[in-house]
Automatic annotation (TrEMBL):
Name the record gives this protein: Alpha/beta hydrolase
Membrane-crossing residue ranges in chain numbering: none
InterPro entries registered for this protein in UniProt: AB_hydrolase_fold, DUF900_hydrolase
Pfam families in the cross-refs: DUF900
Keywords: Hydrolase
Gene Ontology MF terms: hydrolase activity
Organism: Ancylobacter oerskovii
């Protein structure tokens, strides 16, 4: 059974099996709750979309200090959650992945996809610990633009886009809390004469989650009073990004990300039907997840483009948009990057522009490559 830690600015639904719905936290979109979900393999699963089942969700207790009480009387849910994460990482030497889902995804779907990442993105035989942020996308059907298949409507797309943008401050706050917690742990380790925890932290944003990430970065810059952001992620994986192709060129888009991550990997596919629809029917500019970065001239040298056009096909209803969690060739590529291989050392790639752009070849599965 997998334990997926989470933060969400969805509204708490008391007494429900899945305790978070598709509206904002009652305090507003900038407020979030934390906890963990238990997810198990589904005995009846026949495909990648029903391979896991949600067993339970724990919502961490939190409340402000009572009137007249000391500030220490306040219960902050994220403290206990991050401490539990730290114990798991230190005790089992696991990598950590922060995950932001895309369009058309319920809280439950987010937990199931996070469990799929945990199961597939193993390094040295060890599953990573996944911390997922679930913003209040509407769940339901969607032609490849989201996590499920079926029919898609414009109002749902634009509604989710607005929700993703409004969630940027909550995502930024949760990342700020994570950053502060990690810095405090390192300070405590130094004071106690311990070796700081050396496990790597990675960021994964899928589809419209990259639009949400844009606004989280802007919020983080505000929280930091414009100061440079701390580099806490080893890798940032931008998967099928429903973002502008020039996003990494501008600080009011994703241009701040190189401050936060040592390396940025843009996985894209020109055959991505979801992004073709986003491009042609939603009046959006060329998509980062379709064509990759508009140009590499002037971009940070640690930004790489990974062309998945030959390995993006999965199920028909996915619209060539879900390869990041399903195609074994892409999974194998990601695992090698997480294991520390340089861009020219990753098996299964061919260079398009050595040192910057690569194409994944079909046929090499994750099971055939040891990392």
């Amino acid at each position: 059974m997998a334990r997926i830690y989470y933060a969400t600015n969805r509204r708490l639904v008391a007494g429900a099996r899945v305790p978070f719905g598709n509206r904002y936290n009652e305090e507003g979109p900038a407020f979030y709750r934390v906890g963990y979900a238990e997810v198990d393999r589904s005995p009846a699963g026949v495909g990648p979309d029903d391979a896991f089942v949600l067993r339970s969700v724990m919502v961490a207790e939190e409340h402000p200090a009572p009137p007249g009480a000391l500030p220490s009387a306040e219960i902050i849910g994220s403290t206990g959650v991050f401490e539990a994460m730290t114990q798991a990482v230190r005790g089992e030497s696991r990598e950590v992945i922060a995950y932001i889902h895309g369009f058309n995804s319920s809280f439950e779907t987010c937990m199931l996809r996070a469990a799929q990442i945990e199961a597939n993105w193993r390094i040295g035989g060890k599953a990573p610990l996944v911390f997922a942020f679930s913003w209040p996308a509407d769940d339901g059907d969607g032609l490849g633009l989201g996590e499920s298949a079926g029919t898609e409507s414009k109002w749902k797309y634009f509604g989710d886009r607005d929700d993703a943008e409004a969630s940027g401050k909550a995502i930024g706050r949760s990342l700020r809390r994570l950053i502060d917690f990690l810095l405090e742990l390192r300070k405590e380790d130094r004071a106690a004469g311990r070796e700081p925890c050396g496990q790597k932290l990675h960021l994964v944003a899928h589809s419209m989650g990259n639009w949400a990430l844009r606004h989280a970065l802007i919020a983080l810059r505000g929280f930091n009073s414009g100061a440079r952001l701390p580099k806490i992620f080893t890798n940032a994986f931008l998967m099928a990004a429903d973002e502008d192709a020039d996003a990494l060129e501008h600080n009011n888009k994703l241009g701040l990300l190189p401050q936060l991550a040592e390396a940025i990997h843009v996985y894209h596919a020109r055959r991505d039907l979801a992004l073709i629809i986003s491009d042609t029917t939603k009046l959006n500019p060329d998509r980062l997840g379709a064509w990759g970065p508009r140009t590499f001239d002037g971009l940070d040298s640690a930004i790489y483009g990974i062309d998945c056009a030959d390995v993006c096909g999965t199920e028909l209803g996915h619209g060539n948009h879900q390869y990041y969690r399903i195609r074994p060739e892409v999974i194998a590529d990601v695992r090698q990057v997480m294991a520390g291989k340089g861009p020219d050392q990753v098996t299964g790639r061919v260079p398009v522009r050595a040192g910057r752009q690569y194409r994944i070849k079909p046929g090499r599965g994750a099971a055939t490559i040891e990392v």
